[in-house]
């Protein structure tokens, strides 16, 4: 990080604010996957927190009718609020974060910093050193935690109260708890919140109090709760600004804030280094910022949602919202997306626009996979949801895996999907299903390799959704259906890319082909013509692969 700019900022800040006589106690908000100021329970609670008031640990249930903003200034008894973000490269790499996603986070962090500056809230950005053993908790193989870094910052800025939104994955939960214990042992209070789901994980249950394992049943009960309790309308009010100069510029705290105010544009080391050409493309396709996420949401709801049911599986169309990177990094919440969709649908889920109802169902998938993750944490350790699927005799042929990753399987729709992923860091949902099923069912490759590969490349990489999607495709997860869920990639290709626009775009060797030849060039073209394409022959025959897969699953489940 350059400190020249920090010194300049420090001097500028010192010039405008008075030196306090006593260290001013503050509230610290630790941002993680919630890079936004709106609908942010932890931030809102910090900005409205008055010492001596009731404990607010249980979470927020504030109602904002019509989404109107709350702009009132903090009262005299509010403590100044300071924001913190930790860049923990070791943790990000351990969790397979894609370089494009890291870049997206840094870009959004810069936007967050500006949004917070409008509220006079300074943002501290600390890079956690990978070799800092003090930051590792319990298990040296999982350097996921940075509780000491939070504690150090809390001490430096005299934060008596620390606020954050919880994350649900096993490592993250452990890190959050360790951080909380360390802060509390140091005499600070910790206030945590649930911001990731519309319905709290664990709150949607059967009449017998059991966790749902089937999506359709979960969805029915989820909708009942959400409509009955108007959960979709319960957005968190906007945070209140700090009084100007609240952070005691000219003091040691102000100098510290200035020293750590810079957001790096790229990370040191090679692990998360982003390819410059890819970064430019990703910046065009997925610009940063809350304003961008809300503009996307509004455009989708107004222009594309009416056709969502018919266009959502057409891979060449911009038929879906492409909001996933914003939802995954918390630039936008599921609740905000749901709120906007419900308002567009006159407060209904069903009975209004079919497109909106279907889109809301996709948001429910997102909720469902988070509820599953919390109720069955073994999936976080990449275990199959159903233990009996441990026994599938995967072939794990490294050459086949390599061909799949490079988009060289000889199945144009599979190759187009993989090349879209490799180039853009994003893949259409239908192609995610086709490519994942091809790897696991046609190539009989362990789904975990594919899960890791996706995570290492997706700009919207999201553990719950990715794990859920892979286990669904590999039939090892909830509602597995191994004997029915084997896509025929050639039929899928004709259905989801009928005129071949998507394939022609992503597989340039086939650009001049049309009709059946484009979807299945090896079978449809004369041998000499096919040879001239420079395109691979199919890596495996579909019918043969299907039979082999059924046999493998029957063996694993003891049905042979
Ligand atoms: P839209 O169709 O506009 O849907 C709106 C939102 O609903 C999405 O942004 C997403 O948050 C949620 N959603 C949609 N479909 C699903 C689904 N099947 N499961 C869970 N949530 C859903 N999604 C991720 O966000 N991150 C991932 O890492 C991820 N990995 C996946 C891996 C596999 C193998 C599969 C089959 C699916 C995966 N998905 C993942 C789900 C889905 O493919 C993407 O969310 C979707 O393609 C994003 O495009 P969109 O925003 O235009 O979606």
TrEMBL record:
Mention one GO biological process in which this protein takes part, according to its record: entrainment of circadian clock by photoperiod
Entry keyword Nuclease: no
Q: Where is this site: Electron transfer via tryptophanyl radical?
A: 394, 447, 470
A Pfam cross-reference name: FAD_binding_7
Photolyase/cryptochrome alpha/beta domain location is 25-198
Q: Which domain of life is it from?
A: Eukaryota
Q: Which GO terms describe its cellular component?
A: cytoplasm; nucleus
Q: Which UniProt keywords apply?
A: Chromophore, FAD, Flavoprotein
Residues the record lists as binding FAD: 308, 320-324, 359, 362-369, 460-462
Please give the Gene Ontology molecular function terms for this protein: deoxyribodipyrimidine photo-lyase activity; DNA binding; FAD binding
PROSITE patterns named in the record: DNA_PHOTOLYASES_1_1, PHR_CRY_ALPHA_BETA
Presence of the UniProt keyword Cell inner membrane in the record: no
**What cofactor is needed?**
(6R)-5,10-methylene-5,6,7,8-tetrahydrofolate; FAD
According to the record, how does the cofactor bind? Binds 1 FAD per subunit.
Q: Which family does it belong to?
A: Belongs to the DNA photolyase class-1 family.
* Protein name, as recorded: Photolyase/cryptochrome alpha/beta domain-containing protein
Species source reads Powellomyces hirtus
């Amino acid at each position: 990080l350059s400190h020249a700019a920090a010194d300049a900022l420090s001097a500028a800040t010192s010039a405008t604010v008075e030196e306090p006589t006593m260290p001013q106690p503050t509230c610290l908000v630790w941002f993680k996957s919630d890079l936004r100021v709106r609908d942010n329970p932890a931030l809102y609670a910090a900005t409205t927190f008055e010492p001596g008031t009731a404990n607010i640990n249980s979470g927020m249930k504030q109602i904002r009718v019509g989404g109107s903003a709350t702009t009132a200034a903090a009262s005299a008894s509010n403590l100044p609020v300071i924001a913190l973000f930790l860049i923990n490269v070791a943790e990000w790499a351990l969790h397979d974060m894609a370089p494009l996603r890291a870049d997206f986070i840094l870009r959004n962090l810069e936007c967050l910093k500006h949004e917070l500056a409008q509220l006079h809230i300074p943002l501290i950005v600390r890079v956690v050193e990978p070799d800092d053993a003090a930051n590792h908790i319990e298990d040296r193989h999982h350097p996921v935690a940075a509780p000491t870094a939070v504690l150090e910052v809390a001490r430096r800025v005299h934060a008596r109260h620390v606020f954050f939104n919880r994350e649900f994955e096993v490592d993250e939960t452990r890190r959050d708890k360790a951080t909380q214990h360390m802060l509390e042992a140091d005499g600070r209070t910790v206030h945590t919140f649930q911001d990731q789901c519309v319905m709290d994980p664990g709150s949607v249950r059967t009449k017998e109090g059991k966790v749902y394992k089937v999506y359709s049943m979960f969805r029915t009960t989820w909708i009942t709760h959400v409509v009955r309790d108007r959960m979709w309308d319960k957005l968190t009010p906007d945070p209140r600004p700090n009084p100007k100069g609240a952070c005691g510029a000219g003091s040691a705290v102000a100098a510290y804030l200035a020293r750590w105010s810079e957001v790096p544009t790229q990370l040191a080391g090679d692990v998360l280094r982003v390819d410059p050409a890819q970064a430019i493309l990703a910046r065009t396709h997925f610009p940063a910022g809350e304003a961008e996420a809300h503009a996307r949401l509004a455009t989708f709801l107004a222009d594309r949602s009416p056709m969502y049911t018919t266009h959502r599986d057409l891979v060449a169309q911009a038929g879906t919202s492409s909001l996933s990177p914003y939802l995954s990094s918390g630039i936008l919440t599921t609740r905000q997306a749901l709120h906007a969709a419900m308002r567009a649908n006159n407060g209904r889920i069903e009975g209004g626009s079919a497109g909106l109802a279907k889109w809301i169902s996709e948001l429910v998938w997102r909720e469902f996979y988070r509820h599953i993750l919390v109720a069955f944490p073994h999936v976080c350790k990449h275990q199959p949801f159903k233990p009996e699927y441990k026994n599938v005799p995967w072939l794990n042929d490294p050459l086949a895996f390599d061909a799949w990753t490079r988009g060289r399987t000889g199945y144009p729709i599979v190759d187009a999907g993989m090349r879209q992923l490799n180039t853009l860091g994003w893949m259409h949902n239908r192609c995610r299903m086709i490519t994942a099923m091809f790897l696991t069912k046609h190539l009989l490759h362990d789904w975990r390799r594919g899960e890791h590969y996706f995570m290492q490349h997706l700009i919207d990489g999201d553990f719950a959704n990715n794990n859920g999607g892979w286990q669904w495709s590999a039939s090892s997860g909830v509602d597995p259906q191994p004997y029915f869920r084997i896509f025929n990639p050639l039929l899928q290709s004709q259905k989801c890319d009928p005129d071949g626009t998507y394939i022609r775009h992503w597989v340039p060797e086939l650009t001049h082909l049309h009709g059946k030849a484009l979807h299945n060039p090896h079978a449809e073209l004369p041998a000499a013509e096919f040879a001239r394409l420079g395109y691979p022959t199919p890596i495996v025959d579909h019918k043969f692969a299907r039979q082999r897969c059924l046999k493998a699953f029957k063996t694993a489940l003891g049905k042979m």
